[in-house]
Amino acid sequence: MNALEVAASRSKWARRNVGEKTLLLGGLLVLAVSLPPIPFAPIIGVLAVAIAVVARVPLKLYAAMVLAPATFVLVGALPLLVALDSSGFSLSPTGPMRMLEVVLRSAAGISCTMAFALTTPLSELLSWLSKRGIPRSVTYLAELIYRMTGVLIDSARAMADAQARRLGHLNRRSMMRDTGGQAAGLFVIAFSRARRMQQGIELRAEPGSMRVLVISRPLDPRFVSVSLAILVALLGAWAVMKWGM
């Protein structure tokens, strides 16, 4: 099991109904992308971090999973600082504010998504989606992709460890050379294992045969009430800001 699966299965909220977490974190995610990023994105981000603390997920893993895509968003938002017109490139007067809004909104959404991923085991999520009318073929494909990703991560770690033991990371030049070889080898391994997985699917012919036993978890009315109260409070604050002034 990779670190994400372990964290999701050991979190305090792992035994909560998936619908409860979807209501709270999914609702916060929707509000993060729909409400004005200032001041709501920081508030939603703080709520997501608080949820991660309450659910007792590994904070180092949570921070790493949030910062990695957030850094990508930050780098991708840099072009918003520049304007292109007939005279060439220039600094956009509205660029810094637009960049700040994009980064804040994205960071809040990422925080909610990662909190959900670190508190919800995949088996329970897929079972919940199947019960909500999502075709089994779709959830089965998602399960295969997830398992394939885990296998490739383990393969990449084993390859990196083997290169390090052969002193392949002794200096920057050898590290770059071995990293390129590792990427090429992993590319070939991915296609080979994907082909074998496809053959296994064709021979099995029944996606439902990979279903796992999932414990039924009833809804907690108090949790649902608190979740709705938080979402309604944010919407109410937005309404006051928009029409109350």
Structure keywords:
mainly alpha; two-stranded antiparallel sheet; 245 residues; 2 strands; globular
Number of strands: 2
Structure class: mainly alpha
Query: What characterizes the major β-sheet?
Result: 2 strands, antiparallel
Spatial strand arrangement across the major sheet: 1-2
Number of contiguous helices: 9
Strand content: under 5%
Q: Which of globular, elongated, flat, extended, rod-shaped describes the shape?
A: globular
Query: Unreliable segments (pLDDT under 50, ≥5 consecutive)?
Result: none
**Percent helix among the residues?**
over 70%
Rg over CA atoms, rounded to whole Å, is: 22 Å
Give the terminus-to-terminus CA distance.
52 Å
Q: How much is the average pLDDT?
A: 82
Helices and strands, in order, run as HHHHEEHHHHH
